[in-house]
Design goal:
By secondary structure, the protein is an alpha+beta fold. It has one domain: Double-stranded beta-helix (4-Layer Sandwich). It contains six helices and 16 strands. Succinic acid binds next to strand 6 and strand 15.
């Protein structure tokens, strides 16, 4: 196996599980990233699918936006309110009066968009006394552990990703009135090819994916249920226990995540910047 923790001049990279995730030390993102640091961060991101920056200081909103832009144009969330004065910053916040906490079920960020996010960078500022971990699952792993017959069957299929059922009214307790809003939906391949690594990843998720288009309703439901169980059961996962100011950067093209809301009535808060991606495609 390729050792994905060696060959770095600046970063200290240590895997958190055999299949996905690495902890990163050696840079403080609060200072921004030099071109040389960014090159190593991008390499670690592609090799590990999700990376966790340890020993961090609080990142100023401008700096977090600048780091996000090093990966590409930023994504603006279709539903969630943003940090005042910073439209690309999504405030992740749950407390005793919250109706919902973000990311409670397994999902890929905003896969209902025609060009869904490439990646997401989240820094946590306020944490509960225990709990509030985030789980990450490798969709390369989910694809690789299917039989060759199932892989080739899925490669010819497309799925609908919708958001009306998720976003309508979701942020009313934060003052969002969405009466006139039309929420996005999109059709994507069930297996996508990662544009940077060339690897194939399963691209259906329990949050947004509603239907496999080429199958009957019953076939679609049963196949989706199987795939959602399969991606969890293969243990291609890593579970991150946050410390204050830790930063997670995940690749939405090959990772699903799930934030555990096991800490109610305590508070958990952080700033998230999301990077726009390109249209998913399948290349044999
Ligand atoms: C999310 O962005 O889906 C939430 C992740 C988290 O709060 O850990």
């Amino acid at each position: 196996m390729n050792d994905m923790s060696t060959g770095y001049a600046i970063l200290d990279v240590r895997r958190t599980s055999p299949n996905i995730g690495a902890e990163i030390r050696g840079v403080d993102l609060a200072n921004g990233l030099t071109a040389a640091e960014f090159a190593e961060v991008e390499r670690a991101f592609h090799e590990n699918q999700v990376i966790f920056f340890k020993d961090q200081s609080r990142i100023a909103p401008d700096v977090q936006v600048e780091i996000g832009k090093m990966f590409g144009p930023l994504h603006y969330h279709p539903a969630a309110p943003h940090l005042e004065g910073y439209p690309p910053i999504f405030v992740i916040h749950a407390h005793k009066d919250s109706k919902v906490a973000n990311g409670e079920g397994w999902h890929t960020d905003v896969s209902c968009d025609t060009e869904p996010p490439l990646g997401t960078m989240l820094q946590m500022h306020v944490l509960p006394s225990a709990g509030g971990d985030t789980m990450f699952a490798s969709m390369y792993g989910a694809y690789d552990t299917l039989s060759p017959a199932m892989q080739s069957f899925l490669e010819g299929l497309t799925a609908s990703h919708e958001s009306e059922h998720i976003y309508r009214g979701r942020y009313s307790d934060r003052g969002v009135d969405d009466a006139d809003k039309v929420y996005p939906s999109a059709v994507h391949p069930v297996v996508r090819t990662h544009p940077a690594t060339g690897r194939k990843a399963l691209y259906v998720n329990g949050g947004f994916t509603t239907r496999i288009n080429e199958l009957s309703k019953a076939e679609s439901r049963n196949l989706l249920d199987f795939l959602f169980r399969h991606m969890e059961e293969q243990l291609m996962v890593t579970r991150f226990r946050w410390s204050e100011n830790d930063v997670a950067l995940w690749d939405n093209r090959c990772v699903q995540h799930r934030a555990l809301w096991d800490y109610w009535p305590e508070e958990r808060k952080g700033h998230r910047v999301t990077i726009k991606g390109d249209r998913p495609f399948f290349r044999p």
